[in-house]
């Protein structure tokens, strides 16, 4: 690829940050991200991040860097590593569009973390084996279909489990994270591993333990014994899964020798964990924004919810939840060859960082940055902002996007159909004021009011 192709973005030259600015960036952006847990969230740290609104501090730090150095990519030294920080939407679009080559998603940092529990996962694969794994994942997850072929089964399982959650919440008079996540994981195990795995908490608990290690990436040695135990348990459920599960499709789908069918499933479970956070935060938004709640209920009115529905407005609410509070704050790429870009030669092995909260919550590029505005995902406005990437973008876009949105949308529909929810904690969510930069999903608690029938 020649220099002209790498220099189409007119956002300025590639500047280098001072050592002092690199240190400030590390303290205000990198360390809070690591503290919160990039692979497995740490509830106490998330509570502290919300209390001190550290995402607001991080976004302000990047805005300061943009004012000082301009909107072009910025080179920094972080923990001895060369990093290019992207500060312009055009550069984000460029880097994501040219993945996996020359900008591979399998960055050194990502490999160090994800190899703890998915050493053969798609996100940390390169070359021909990545192409094979990408095709396999897209085939099983049906990346391009709004409704998966298993949507009737997925719908029935989701409605059954969250019907129970709704009943329990109605009896208790409230809904908290523990109640929600218990129902969520029963649902996901049934969808992914089959009905026989509904109560197989040991599988997801083992994965949780390994993901906690993965937060430390290369700084903590992989517990291979624990990983092998997890993969054995996982394989047992996959091999026994009923025909209406993703595991059954995984068994039946042709795969090249290097794909490792079973090795793709840990990332599916990992992604569904983030989706739970997204859905619970979306419920908090609907509980505190009466106009949007009315629109959501209007979408559900008259629908036969026992049949698969796309529910575009609820999907838009979920996308807004991710925009406002990204579950993947750091989108990383690494160039696999030296490339000329913005007037400089970038050595191979350089990491490129897209800090998504900066682009999602920056008024300079998104006028409604701090508002709950699901309509932008329906009227085309979101498409005008190439750095709004709730599920990444380009060739590395999440292949399970539509399936995740279908499950989460069905969860919201099931809950909203039966009850009204009033957010008790935190009280700072308010339709009349800018939304907070940080929101701790573990601290959300709703009062529940039955809807008269």
UniProtKB/TrEMBL annotation:
<dbReference type="Pfam" id="PF00067">
    <property type="entry name" value="p450"/>
</dbReference>
<dbReference type="InterPro" id="IPR050196">
    <property type="entry name" value="Cytochrome_P450_Monoox"/>
</dbReference>
<dbReference type="GO" id="GO:0004497">
    <property type="term" value="F:monooxygenase activity"/>
</dbReference>
<dbReference type="GO" id="GO:0016705">
    <property type="term" value="F:oxidoreductase activity, acting on paired donors, with incorporation or reduction of molecular oxygen"/>
</dbReference>
<dbReference type="InterPro" id="IPR001128">
    <property type="entry name" value="Cyt_P450"/>
</dbReference>
<keyword id="KW-0560">Oxidoreductase</keyword>
<dbReference type="GO" id="GO:0005506">
    <property type="term" value="F:iron ion binding"/>
</dbReference>
<keyword id="KW-0479">Metal-binding</keyword>
<keyword id="KW-0408">Iron</keyword>
<keyword id="KW-0503">Monooxygenase</keyword>
<protein>
    <submittedName>
        <fullName>Cytochrome P450</fullName>
    </submittedName>
</protein>
<dbReference type="GO" id="GO:0020037">
    <property type="term" value="F:heme binding"/>
</dbReference>
<dbReference type="InterPro" id="IPR036396">
    <property type="entry name" value="Cyt_P450_sf"/>
</dbReference>
<comment type="similarity">
    <text>Belongs to the cytochrome P450 family.</text>
</comment>
<keyword id="KW-0349">Heme</keyword>
């Amino acid at each position: 690829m020649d220099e002209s192709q790498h220099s189409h973005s007119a956002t300025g030259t590639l500047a280098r940050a001072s050592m002092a600015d690199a240190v400030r960036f590390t303290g205000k952006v990198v360390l809070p991200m690591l503290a919160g847990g990039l692979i497995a969230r740490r509830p106490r740290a998330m509570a502290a991040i919300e209390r001190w609104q550290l995402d607001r501090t991080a976004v302000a730090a990047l805005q300061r860097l943009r004012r000082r150095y301009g909107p072009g990519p910025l080179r920094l030294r972080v923990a001895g590593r060369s990093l290019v920080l992207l500060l312009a939407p055009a550069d984000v679009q460029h880097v994501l569009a040219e993945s996996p080559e020359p900008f591979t998603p399998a960055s050194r940092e990502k490999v160090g973390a994800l190899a703890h529990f998915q050493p053969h996962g798609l996100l940390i694969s390169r070359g021909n084996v990545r192409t094979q794994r990408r095709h396999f994942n897209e085939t099983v997850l049906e990346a391009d279909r709004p409704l998966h072929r298993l949507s009737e089964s997925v719908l029935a399982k989701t409605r059954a489990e969250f019907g129970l959650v709704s009943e329990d919440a109605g009896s208790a008079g409230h809904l908290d994270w523990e109640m929600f996540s218990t129902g969520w994981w029963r649902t996901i195990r049934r969808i992914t591993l089959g009905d026989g795995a509904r109560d197989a908490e040991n599988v997801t608990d083992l994965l949780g333990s390994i993901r906690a290690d993965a937060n430390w990436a290369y700084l903590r040695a992989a517990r291979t014994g624990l990983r092998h135990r997890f993969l054995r348990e996982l394989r047992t459920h996959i091999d026994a899964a009923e025909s209406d599960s993703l595991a059954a499709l995984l068994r039946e789908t042709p795969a090249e020798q290097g794909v490792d069918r079973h090795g793709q499933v840990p990332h599916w479970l990992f992604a569904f964990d983030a989706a739970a956070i997204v859905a619970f935060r979306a419920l908090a938004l609907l509980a505190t924004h009466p106009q949007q709640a009315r629109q959501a209920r209007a979408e559900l009115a008259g629908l036969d919810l026992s049949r698969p529905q796309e529910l575009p407005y609820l999907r838009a609410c979920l996308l807004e939840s991710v925009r406002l509070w990204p579950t993947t704050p750091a989108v990383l790429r690494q160039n696999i060859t030296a490339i000329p870009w913005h007037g400089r030669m970038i050595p191979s092995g350089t990491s490129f960082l897209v800090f998504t909260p900066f682009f999602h919550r920056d008024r300079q590029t998104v006028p409604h940055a701090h508002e709950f505005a699901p309509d932008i995902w329906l009227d085309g406005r979101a498409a005008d902002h190439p750095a709004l990437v709730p599920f990444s973008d380009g060739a590395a876009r999440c292949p399970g996007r539509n399936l995740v949105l279908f499950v989460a949308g069905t969860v919201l529909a099931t809950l909203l159909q039966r009850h009204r929810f009033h957010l008790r904690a935190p009280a700072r969510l308010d339709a009349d004021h800018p939304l907070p930069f940080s929101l701790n999903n573990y601290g959300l608690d709703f009062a529940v009011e039955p809807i008269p029938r």
